Amino acid sequence: MEYDLVIIGTGTAAMVCAMRVAKAGWRVAVVDEKPFGGTCALRGCDPKKMLVAGAEAIDAKQRMTGHGVEGDVRIAWPDLIRFKRSFTDPVPDKHERRYEEAGIATLHGTATFMGPNRLCVGDREIGYRKILIASGARPIPLAIPGEEYLTDNEGFLELPSLPKRIVLVGGGYIAAEFSHIAARAGAEVTILQRGPRMLTQFEPELVGWLMDAFDRIGIRVITDTTVNAIRKRGRAYVVHASGEGGPIEVAADLVVHAAGRVPAIERLDLEKAGIAAENGKLKLNEFLQSMSNPGVYAAGDAASNGPPLTPVSSHDAKVVAANLVDGNHREPDYKGVPSVAFTLPPIARVGLTEAEAIEAGLKLRLKCERASDWFTARRVAEAVYGYKTLVDEDTGRILGAHLVGPHADEVINIFGLAIRHGLTVEDLKTTMFAYPTGASDIGYML
Ligand SMILES: Cc1cc2nc3c(=O)[nH]c(=O)nc-3n(C[C@H](O)[C@H](O)[C@H](O)COP(=O)(O)OP(=O)(O)OC[C@H]3O[C@@H](n4cnc5c(N)ncnc54)[C@H](O)[C@@H]3O)c2cc1C
Ligand SMILES: NC(=O)c1ccc[n+]([C@@H]2O[C@H](COP(=O)([O-])OP(=O)(O)OC[C@H]3O[C@@H](n4cnc5c(N)ncnc54)[C@H](O)[C@@H]3O)[C@@H](O)[C@H]2O)c1
Predict the structure, then answer these.
(1) Radius of gyration over alpha carbons of the chain, in Å?
(2) Same structural domain, 65 and 90
(3) Containing structural domain, residue 351
(4) How many domains does the chain fold into?
């Protein structure tokens, strides 16, 4: 069979690009070796946030205890997983139907290149004019003894029961979010983080305040510590790590990979199609097109051109679809991509960090404050609340916004809108926000 476009993957990037290109009359096929839907819908954002809903109930109870709420609340893990499945289980069929209704061929199996215009999917050979590599990311190989004992994000989000002692290897997004779910479901959680602090993608002051929430629920965070082996001991594990204070050992019933993700391109046999990659990353031009094979584009986590987040996968896919259908003319623009780690409370960022703004030599007006005594925090008895805002001194434009605390995950989008569309402090201060909401604090943050 011959197609105008074959897309490797069926995640966010694949869906967005396939629909647009098929609408232009191209014969399109999508391929996946896993059930259709990709990481976000099946193994990432959405199932994770279904579990966060359970943790939110515990969190609210704990905060409001002594303020008029009493009684026992606990997570019944198998029921919470069943609740999650009520969303995830129908996804593959739904997605497959959407492709079929749009006239897009759906192929199951592992895709590997056989030559410049041939792809092998399982035992079928497929011809194409153009390819989109939207194969996502995979956990970074750690190359340590006992690596095979690690459970990945997919395994964690499917656990039939929650083990008592959980160790997370790494201290970024996944460790932060999974630890907050697991601790509220009753597990003893330890995070072993190589970096000097948790969540290095976020502002240090805000992460510092957020650590109060980690302490409150008994998550043990050990920083400046690198995991270098995992050994089996009976039915449990011992995680070996080395840090500033020397070697340490932590016993665990479950060890979770939270040490970063890299583009999933290693199994594609790229060289057979003349597709250049360097250090595990595709070599792409400004149009997200392969620098060595013009018939090949990439988007989302596989392209690793912008931050590995769902809105970026979607944005890349729109760029590639436009370039495929009308010739290369669009370049991705990652200005104002908001990002949230869904801890309880959440932490969020958009635009430049303070360090990035200083590095860029910008003239800054900066405000940074812990705001535990503001109404937004006090109403829900949450002591973790604060912000950092960065404004261009000359133009008044918002350059960056960083929030931690109640509603940070929603309010960050308003700052995102401001940054993406060049709004100024004056624009935001003269906007009326419903009161009292998280957004009604924006004026005071600027
Ligand atoms: C636990 C977790 C939580 C996350 N939470 C958030 C969040 O809250 N917000 C956010 O913005 N982002 C989040 N992310 C990141 C987000 O999920 C990704 O950025 C996004 O899903 C990437 O989409 P994609 O289309 O690029 O790739 P994917 O959705 O990963 O799709 C790639 C698909 O390609 C398939 N594939 C790979 N290789 C082959 C092959 N050789 N043959 C056939 N098929 C193949 C895979 O099976 C997969 O289905 C999270 C990620 C994880 C892991
Ligand atoms: N809410 C969200 O948007 C969300 C949630 C989950 C994942 N994601 C995406 O998925 C990507 C991967 O997430 P992640 O949490 O795995 O990676 P991450 O890059 O956020 O954090 C990984 C951390 O692991 C540490 N590390 C690496 N090797 C180690 C070792 N041997 N021992 C101890 N620590 C080690 C690193 O220092 C790093 O800080 C993220 O970059 C993010 O874009 C996003």
Answers:
(1) 23
(2) yes
(3) 345-445
(4) 3
CATH number of the domain that residue 420 is part of: 3.30.390.30
Q: Minimal CA–CA distance to 181: which of 346, 70, 416, 402? A: 346
Which of 272, 310, 334, 343 is the best mutation target for the ligand 1 pocket, counting ligand atoms within 8 Å of the beta carbon and taking the most? 310
Q: Any idea of the CA torsion for 393, 396, 397, 398, to the nearest 10 degrees?
A: 80
Shared-domain flag, residues 116 and 12: yes
Residues 184, 120 share a domain: no
The ipTM of this complex is 0.98
Q: Whose CA is nearest to atom 8 of ligand 2?
A: 173
Q: For 225-277, what is each residue's pLDDT tens digit?
A: 999 999 999 999 999 999 988 999 999 999 999 999 999 999 999 999 999 99
Cis check: omega of the bond before 332, within 30 degrees of 0: no
Of 229, 259, 289, the one marking the end of a domain is 259
User: What residues are paired with 108 via a beta bridge?
Assistant: 32
Written as six digits, the tokens of 332 are 């991705």
Pair of tokens at residue 176: 């932060």
Question: Is 338 contained in some domain?
Answer: no
Tokens for 3? 């197609």
Round to whole Å and give the CA distance between 405 and 206: 9
Q: Quick one: tokens of 117?
A: 């215009």
Per DSSP, the three-state class of 22 is: helix
Instruction: Report how far residue 101's alpha carbon sits from residue 104's, in angstroms, rounded to the nearest whole number.
Output: 7
Determine which residue's CA is closest to atom 17 belonging to ligand 1: 40
CATH number of the structural domain spanning residue 17: 3.50.50.60
